[in-house]
Amino acid sequence: MRMKVKEIAEMVGGKVIGDPDVVITGVSGIKEAKEGDLTFIAINKYKPLLKSTKASAVLVSPEINNTVNAVLIQVENPSLAFAKIMALVGPEPIKFSPGIHPTAIIGKNVEIGKDVSIQPFAVIEDNAVIGDETVIGAGVYIGHYTKIGRNCLIYPHVVIRERITIGDRVIIHPGTVIGGDGFGFATVRGVHHKIPQIGTVEIGNDVEIGSNVTIDRARFDKTYIGNGVKIDNLVQIAHNVYIGDNTIVVAQVGISGSTKIGKNVIIAGQAGIIGHITIGDNVIIGGKAGVTKNIPPNTHVTGFPARDKWEDMRFQAYVRRQPELIEKVKKLEEKIEKLEARLREIYGEENPENN
Amino acid sequence: MRMKVKEIAEMVGGKVIGDPDVVITGVSGIKEAKEGDLTFIAINKYKPLLKSTKASAVLVSPEINNTVNAVLIQVENPSLAFAKIMALVGPEPIKFSPGIHPTAIIGKNVEIGKDVSIQPFAVIEDNAVIGDETVIGAGVYIGHYTKIGRNCLIYPHVVIRERITIGDRVIIHPGTVIGGDGFGFATVRGVHHKIPQIGTVEIGNDVEIGSNVTIDRARFDKTYIGNGVKIDNLVQIAHNVYIGDNTIVVAQVGISGSTKIGKNVIIAGQAGIIGHITIGDNVIIGGKAGVTKNIPPNTHVTGFPARDKWEDMRFQAYVRRQPELIEKVKKLEEKIEKLEARLREIYGEENPENN
Amino acid sequence: MRMKVKEIAEMVGGKVIGDPDVVITGVSGIKEAKEGDLTFIAINKYKPLLKSTKASAVLVSPEINNTVNAVLIQVENPSLAFAKIMALVGPEPIKFSPGIHPTAIIGKNVEIGKDVSIQPFAVIEDNAVIGDETVIGAGVYIGHYTKIGRNCLIYPHVVIRERITIGDRVIIHPGTVIGGDGFGFATVRGVHHKIPQIGTVEIGNDVEIGSNVTIDRARFDKTYIGNGVKIDNLVQIAHNVYIGDNTIVVAQVGISGSTKIGKNVIIAGQAGIIGHITIGDNVIIGGKAGVTKNIPPNTHVTGFPARDKWEDMRFQAYVRRQPELIEKVKKLEEKIEKLEARLREIYGEENPENN
Q: What pTM did the predictor assign?
């Protein structure tokens, strides 16, 4: 990579504060950056690092205007701008050429679109449909009647069982399982009888799903993942869950059966949500939170049981005053004892505790 | 599907409250049901929906007798009855015909029962045994000397390492790993030396195991999963764990090494249990609970550290009174100040704090 | 197995307390041991079992000197000594002979060392490097340009994507995914745009990684796992995480992006660590802890938010006094009421609350 700051600014629609002719030869994080590197600040926490960074240029949001050694490039969304530049300088992405590898096994009546790539040892069962330009990675299993949209990237060893529908431009990372049976049993005298899980899973467009995720098929009807939803690694999504568009689900989250999640929700890592409840649009659920009841839209909840973040913080602050409170009560007890003694003095009484 | 309510009632041994000739054309959840649908109520939470459901018939437990629009079919176990009907109306389950796919690799001295189906790219190592009518899915790996019982369904990409024993009618969902080494190291001067894990895993009959579960082999002897145990997705079961019959383990639970779980236990999602303890029969462990010591039989524990549910609730109620308590103590302080002032007045003293 | 106690003591450099000619015919845990068995005590919790064990000999640390029925063999590290003996008596470990299975698919310019074993249905992409005596299990996927060191054991169905570097003597259990894209998006007007993850993963020597683990590739630069690190099952390690040498990460832990973990750290099961923080050397993080800020070296933290273990315990003890505190405050209120009444009596006042 060898570009001038002004060329970069032009590519991302940014405004240069400083010398536009400085030469950039690499990209890096703000802490690790060295001379010649372009970096960026996406979260305010890293703002103080502007002073110490060795980077030659930094993509920043428009309100940042410090006079620092590095040249600043002001843009609306520094993360996105940096991503554009990274795509230029990163190693050539691995491409899988169109074509069906001779070891792949394709069932009967499978419809395969244009320029599809099917890698070694993939198994595509009867009546499946694979959209144009989709890549089916090595060892992927696609069940009977399952439909995969266009321009999808299904990484090695993903398992998608029968009768699932997946939209366009969906990315699924390795080891993820879609359409396993929901966890449903009817218990009669201590023995658990399997309830058939005859529903399916429907996944919208532009969804990305991490590695080793599990998304169960519905008992009936469908488990639904909306358009633009992003799911991190090792997430559990139970049967009949509904997730609205553009919601983000961070690693190791678990969502229990039949729960409905709104749009633009953020669920932070290791949070758990019980079944049969509703989470409103734009809700933020804190890391490790345990959500036990419906959450209205536009709220931020934390803790277990999860409640309003500010209420939770206020409450935690109260609880932290416990040692001080114990001390205060001890002092009050002493004072009251003295008061009682003086009053007994006035009345000429004896201390009843001495009897 | 096209059946009369009375025909359905007969199939499930139920009693009709309402018109027995109403025609049912589908099945659905109580919220989503439309005219012509059969639905059911398994948990009391959904009882109020009886009034608003558009379903034409509802499977209910015998004590429910509301006068509603829908016809009721009273049965002992509505879930199980509904499951029976669902099995009738659901899409034809995918069947894997008996036979060994030509791409499957079968080692030496492998014993394969009658009507076994071995799917593409399965690998079955030397001296393994596969029982009658069992299905080995695409890409499944069965290690040396491992024995799988009859009528099992091993979904694609399951890995079962060497010397494992699995009972009859066991279902294992995709991506699950059975018999990985237990996590055991002896640390000498900061370096962790691997302790060989020479034990095995034994899984009983009628067990169901979800997707991407991990069940480690024992250090010596065996990790044991009893008959009828049901395990959800992404569960971790460490070496030498023992799980009694008919216990239920919900998604993302972790059970540490050498812990013994009783029969008919329910462990809710994301709970964690430390190693080397004993959980009695019929125990219920709440979601996200952290169990740090032995739990006696027939108890219900919640929280972290986990304790009796009612004690925990009472205690949480006490803690929630913290803001009120702080307020009370503040008032007491003021009152005592006034009392002290009045007594000083009586004695004609000065306030020592003014000095 | 048939060895005298004195022969075992010699093998592990131990000192015999009791009859050195007792014959040992098996190995077992201290609870399950029967006559003829050798067992050991690694944790003090099990010391009382010395009296009741039916084992014929017990490996113990030098300070244990009880007079019990069993013969004692004192050694510096009983776990490690026991491991040595177990390796002798356990079943012959499964060996995978060197050679490339005819079904394996090897790309262009792949470098394969001496005595490498490549099992059925493995896929090794162009320009990958596999070190001497490494075993690549059935169905393993090795991406383009990825380098695996010598003497590694990569179990079936592991996926290692492109441009990853793995050291020598590394063990990776089944189903683990290394080098999936980091979870990074730039959100513009509610739509999440993928940030390319152009970095890699570098794993040191002597690392062991459990089953179904996920280790994401870096946004840029690398995600780093130091020498001698041991990672249990179902752990999530996000992009750009750095883990120092000999750190232990127990099952179901999640470490968020760009966090730096020191050397010799122990992170217990189900703990979670937020992104962009630093955990010092020799830190211990308790099970289920939620770490939200930097942790200085040599500390032991627990709880959520995680804080010093002793401080946390003291604080929890204070909080447990809540019911008692509520009771005390109630009594103080009563006493003050009486004091106020008596003072009103002295002054001849009426109770203002009676008005």
A: 0.93
